[in-house]
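Why Amino acid/amide ABC transporter ATP-binding protein 1 (HAAT family)? Reviewers of the renewal asked for a concrete example.
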Amino acid sequence: MSLLRVESVSKRFGGITANQDVSFEVGAGKIVGLIGPNGAGKTTMFNCIAGYAPPTTGEIWMNDIKVSGMSPEQCARAGIGRTFQVARTFTSMTALENVMVGAFLINKNVGDARQSAARLLSFVNLGQFRDKPAGSMTISEQRRLAVARALAVKPRLLLMDEVMAGLNPTEVRETVDVVLKIREEGISCLIVEHVLEGIMPIADAIVVLDYGKKIAEGSPEQVSRDPKVIAAYLGDE
Ligand SMILES: Nc1ncnc2c1ncn2[C@@H]1O[C@H](COP(=O)(O)OP(=O)(O)OP(=O)(O)O)[C@@H](O)[C@H]1O
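Here is what the prediction returned.
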């Protein structure tokens, strides 16, 4: 059963078509990778889904709620959480306080927010940083912190924008472990990623964009054999 449905979405910025007639679905409890060369329109698609930039045409649905045209807050209330390409960490606040910022969006009670934030820090394997300034954490840890903050809003779908970029193989593995745990919780994940060795082994499905259009969709095995996908990536070298 699909949780998110992207239906014929196009997004234009003046003369630039960043997304063109893109359709795909994310099933409940599934991991879907959204990949493609630089400038393919992946972040634009995230912005459309999360309410940061409405589609020019087309519709986006979360179950029976039409979210296209909604504000980011309304999309969050409909169950869409996100992380950003550049982690927006509050560096002088502690790790716990950073996650509490997310928790406060749905629960104004300080005790509840603290408890939920502490649980989520452990969930992303950052329990030891609870009372440390977020600025003292590595990039990899800050990315997982951003994931915990997004989870604090209790999404049913989590959009993750390049959480593995620039990480070493150990850090990629740690991040992959967290993504798998998120799926185990029944939360769907839509992941924009250039680190294909991180996303390919764990994705239930892959959607490939190139120049704004969907050029392939299927299992990781299917898309990695697809001549159109190979050509798009080789053309990007
Ligand atoms: N606000 C904007 N105004 C004008 N053009 C934009 C805007 N946002 C994105 N674009 C253009 O839309 C196209 C798609 O950009 P987008 O950032 O979505 O690609 P991407 O696949 O996320 O790229 P990357 O992998 O490099 O992050 C690009 O040509 C980009 O310059």
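The first helix runs from residue 42 to 49. This is the kind of structural detail the renewal will allow us to pursue systematically.
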